[in-house]
Amino acid sequence: SSVLLKFEVNHIAWLAADRAMHPALAAQDTWSLARATRSVARAMTSSAQGREAITTLLNMADRMRPELPQQEGHLLALYGMLYLAASITAAEQEDAALARDMHREAQAAAERMAPHYETHRTHFGITNVQIHRVAALVRLYDAGRALEFAGTIDPAAIAALSPERRANYLLDLTEAHTRTRNYQEAARLLMRAEQVAPEEVRCRPVAHGLLRSLLSNTTGEPARLVRAMAGRAGVAA
């Protein structure tokens, strides 16, 4: 389901997530149920059901809360990830106040885990919460604040994340710089994202959209680099 959502094959992603829900419910497996809920909520958001997606995420968080004291590790990480998903969805709904509140809940969960972070699937921790805040601000069309906040994040902490997470963060920074018309820096960051995780740039529709924007707005050496990336991604120049 997560892979299908990256490729924006939303109706099949929803079906995959829904099928995951049934055995998780039957087994009363909270961890698997939370994972499936995140995917269902993402699919709902992609189908213009953002408010319903947030309700689904928060209901799952409420269901998990009584179990947290006994199983903080992996379960607390997923609990925090539910709030991060809600913060991004709220930002896409242009609800800045709710996005901020959801971010605070995720931050509180991450602080319970600090200085450690979850290495199994989610990479949940302080740094992941911070890069999600950047993503939320980009979706709130507040590129300036997104870049300002990004400047407060420890580069060493970013480097410790998985290649996928680092590349996604770089895609958000690329979009922020594109919106502030700093196309040269946007092209540089997109090239870094391709170096970190090539498939995230060459295969994903969101990256293809950034490439098309940069193809139209860069000249000179940045334009040459963008054309080369576009060629590798199969995006027409």
Describe this structure in words.
This protein is mainly alpha-helical. Helices cover 78% and strands 0% of the residues. The chain has 14 helices and no strands. The chain has helices at 2-6, 10-27, 30-46, 50-64, 72-92, 96-113, 126-139, 143-150, 155-159, 163-179, 183-196, 198-202, 205-217, 220-233. The chain is globular and about 60 Å long. The mean pLDDT is 93.
Keywords, separated by commas or semicolons:
237 residues, mainly alpha
Task: Map the helices and strands.
Blueprint: H1 2-6, H2 10-27, H3 30-46, H4 50-64, H5 72-92, H6 96-113, H7 126-139, H8 143-150, H9 155-159, H10 163-179, H11 183-196, H12 198-202, H13 205-217, H14 220-233
Helix pairs in contact: 2-3, 3-4, 3-5, 4-5, 5-6, 5-7, 6-7, 7-8, 7-10, 8-10, 10-11, 10-13, 11-13, 11-14, 13-14
β-sheet strand percentage: under 5%
What is the tally of beta strands? 0
Task: Estimate percent helicity.
Answer: over 70%
Major sheet description: none
Query: What's the total helix number?
Result: 14
- The assigned structural class equals mainly alpha
Series of H and E elements: HHHHHHHHHHHHHH
Radius of gyration, CA atoms, in whole angstroms: 18 Å
Mean pLDDT: 93
Distance between the termini: 31 Å
Low-confidence stretches: none
Anisotropy-based shape: globular
